[in-house]
Each structure stands twice: as structure tokens, then as C-alpha cells.
Amino acid sequence: METAVTVYGPVRGATGDKTVTLEWAGGTVADAIAAVVETYPRAEPHLYDGEEVRTSVRVSIDGERAALEDRVPEDAALAVVPAVQGGSGE
Hints:
This protein is an alpha+beta fold. The protein is 23% helix and 30% strand.
């Protein structure tokens, strides 16, 4: 399955582009995140905390917020937003 994935923040540095085409077997949002990390290993520390997807990672499917267990439809577009570290607040 081919899925367009738009990434933000430090994950963009791992992929080299804002939007990439992900070749994967299909499945859930969690499976898609795992496929992103498999394809772009430098994205792992931004998306995973140990074995689990970071709770701060936000994913949308075709512009709608999605849960990790949601299935990704054929030809869907994903957006992956990792946690953004804030500044000093000044």
C-alpha cells in the first residue's frame, strides 16, 4: 500500500522532506508509524518512548485526528506531528 505522509518538526529532518510516500503493508495508525520508523530510523526517538508510541505524537488521516488503533484506508493521507518542545516561556 502507498500512503502520503506529511511530517512536522524534527521528523522532517529524519525524512528529508515534508511529505514522503510510504510503502507499507497497510493496517492501523500504529502500524503506519512503525513503517515510518522502519523506513526512516532517525525518526524513532521523536515518535517512540521505548517500545511505545509517544503519547504526545498526533496523527491525522485526511485531516481528521486519528487514534493509534484506527485503520488507515487505501489512498489516505497521513500527517504525523511529534511533540514540540517549548521554549523558556519568556
